[in-house]
Amino acid sequence: MTERFDGSFTQQEPIPEEGIAAALDVLRHGRLHRYNTRPGELSETALLEQDFAAMTGARYCLAVASGGYAMSTALRAVGVRPGDRVLSNAFTLAPVPGAIASVGAVPVFVGVTEQLTIDLDDLAAKADQARVLLLSHMRGHICDMDRLMAICNAAGITVIEDCAHTMGAAWRGVPSGRHGAVGCYSCQTYKHVNSGEGGFLVTDDDEIAARAVILSGSYMLYERHLAAPAPEVFERVKYVTPNISGRMDNLRAAILRPQLRALEAQVDRWNDRYRALEDGLRGTPGLTLIDRPEAERYVGSSFQVLLMDWPGEKVAEVVRRCGARGVELKWFGAAEPVAFTSRYDSWRYVDAPRMPESDRILAAILDMRVPLTFSLDDCALIARIIRAEVGAVFQQAA
Asked: pTM value?
């Protein structure tokens, strides 16, 4: 009998009861706007920023409307201007080059390795082309951050980290987002904490933090932030920094605070599922697993494999056959982006030179979400289905 998976790749776990209760409290008092507080009251959003700063070890944290807004705000706060060139990954998703384009800057793409991380040799070769790197830890894969920072520090490059897929992850014990000048995170439904939409920006830099708070739409209410610089820092920047409103509200903050407290345990659960998929797929002919370095503390909320040097029609057949058995795989090698898949040549507002070695790797990537609604048995079943269908197509090709 042919096995089939009947679960959903988009169904998340429910919001914790503590978060639901906190959200109801906000709804009952009606003060959803982060600056709408009673005398002496601390808003849920300010408390959330304090919580997240403590969790990451950052001096300052700003909660915003989305991860994409966090990135564009970070770019503005570090001084990127229209026409500036900004380095970024060739393997990423649309909000990353979108953030660069939103400030009028120009993406300069850096290649991808078979470990699905930024190509540090290519970064070193392009280090003289820009003064900012918007680094995407795409699908949760973290490069050698020690070498990356050495390259960027030597070239005077400011690093902004896109940690949409690495909240809770670390490199050699340093939380993701804490190597560069700014770390940006997402709280969108398919990320590691869920408020539907939302994001964070963290930094240790006084002026970057003050600019970001004003950019987010604080007006002159910045003293109501708990994880922000002293008032005198705001005095230096408040009249020369535009308001580009993108605040988080108290309802989303209330939902998120209990989720942050549970994040470490959730990371362990994701990684149990990731390892179950690895165990089930290890040794599949024609399929390459991604080696995870010992220095990386990853979060296995998605799973990628490579079908290196397979003809495109054969990769598409694997995707089709797995889909017929209930396993939803996304392929980054298709000529047109489907759903969230995209790559550097998808964004036609960028005149990007071809990158043949990166193209070869991108054409091999299969990706799938791993929601915590999957059991370990579900993951073993999914692995069996992928193994069988890859094997069937591989044998046909042989």
From this structure: 0.97
